Amino acid sequence: MTNSTVLAVGLADRWHSFWQDPIGVWILDRGVPIALYLIGGLLAARFITWLANRIVRRIDAEYRESDQLVRSESAKHRQAVASVISWVSVALLFVIVMVQVSTILAIPVGSLVAPAAVLGAALGFGAQRVVQDLLSGFFIITEKQYGFGDLVSLTVGNIAEPAEGTVEDVTLRVTKLRSSEGAMLTIPNGQIVKTVNLSKDWARAVIDIPVPTSADLNLVNEVLHGVAEKAMEDPSLDALLLDAPQLMGVESIELDTVNLRMVARTLPGKQFEVGRRIRQLVVRALRRAGIVSPTEGHAPMVEAIAHPATAGGAEETQAPPEQKK
Predict the structure, then answer these.
(1) What's residue 312's pLDDT?
(2) Fewest Cβ atoms closer than 10 Å to its Cβ: which of 60, 214, 260, 290?
(3) Distance of alpha carbon 171 from the chain centroid
(4) Does residue 236 belong to any structural domain of this protein?
(5) CA neighbours within 13 Å on the CB side: how many for 257?
(6) Average pLDDT of 263-288?
(7) Residue at which a domain ends, from 107, 140, 166
């Protein structure tokens, strides 16, 4: 028997004896199942995330390939529900894997009750905000307050200025908004005090039109009524307007201007685009009618009325006796 044969037999004996040792037995009985659970859980989580993203992309592709100008409410809700289901599924999968790993490791659950109670009491104050976020997210989804693609304004906590933007993701814990400047806002659902959905079913464009006080309001009303009637014929407004714009009349009166208001019902989220186009049509129509804005004309001169205490002769009447002489 050669040296190589003796060495091979020795390695084989060592390899065989290693798997019969306590370490080898533990690896086969517990280490391998634990590794399989962890790898399987990771692969399952990746698959759930991939499937949810595929469903979201498919819903989004159906909207982009259709002739719809805005997403339907059902499509927004389906995308939000798909995101929430994927998040919950991954969380449940994580819990199941941890339970199976603890079972394989033969960790006695009874002995963990007392430490878990102490740990739960210690973490309860910190976890209550997480629970509040989860409950708030649940009601946001079930009540269909907003969904993917909605333009919303969210009042967060005691912050005076609301967070405004387009919803890009909704989970049970947070809502992600994309602001008009392109910033991503992540807001915990439990901190949302008030929700304003600017693209729910329909929206309204509000256009305030200032005209000089010297202008003939009858002529201005005729011009604006003409703009409202022709707005439905405009190629860029025909598909966005739900009905013809309406002139509400005088909204307020300033020192040198009279503000009139026009409103129009639009498709969800299209009120700003419609408002910009209608303002352009109004300015063009007013210019053609010879009605200029207050800044383009001569600003009215307002003469200040002198106070009696400083008017001419008042100094003489109020002067001391020695000054009168």
Answers:
(1) 45
(2) 290
(3) 12
(4) yes
(5) 15
(6) 88
(7) 107
Token pair 């079913």 in the structure block, residue: 201
The beta-strand segments (E) located in the chain are 151-156, 163-170, 174-178, 184-188, 192-197, 203-212, 246-253, 257-266
Please tell me the total number of residues recorded for the chain in this structure: 325
Least confident range of 33-37, 70-74, 202-206, 237-241 = 70-74
Domain end residue (candidates: 73, 107, 141): 107
- Residue 229 maps to a domain: yes
- Distance CA(316)–CA(300), nearest Å, equals 34
Collapsing DSSP states into helix, strand and coil, what is residue 177?
Answer: strand
In a domain, 208, yes or no: yes
Q: Which domain holds residue 53?
A: 10-107
Task: Work out whether the CA dihedral 316, 321, 322, 325 comes out positive or negative.
Answer: positive
Q: Which residue has the tokens 């060592």?
A: 14
For the record, the structure tokens of 71 come out as 């997403």
**Predicted confidence (pLDDT) at residue 309 exceeds the cutoff of 50:** no
- Per the structure block, which two tokens stand in for 55? 């469903």
The domain tally of the chain equals 2
Residue 232 covered by a domain: yes
Nearest to 237 by CA among 276, 206, 209: 276
Average pLDDT, the chain: 76
Please report, for residues 136, 302, 308, 310, 311, the alpha-carbon distance to residue 305 in angstroms, rounded to integers and kept in the order given: 60, 9, 9, 10, 9
Locate tokens 């007013």: which residue? Answer: 286
C-beta atoms surrounding 297 within 10 Å: 13
Quote the pLDDT of residue 67.
54
Written as six digits, the tokens of 131 are 């629970």
Does residue 8 carry a pLDDT above 60? no
Cβ contacts of 212 within 8 Å, gap of 6 or more:
256, 257, 258, 291, 292, 293, 294, 297
CATH of the domain at 245: 3.30.70.100
Give the residue among 274, 269, 275, 273 at the shortest CA–CA distance from 76. Answer: 269
> What's the sign of the alpha-carbon dihedral 97, 102, 104, 109?
negative
pLDDT of residue 26 exceeding 60, the answer is yes
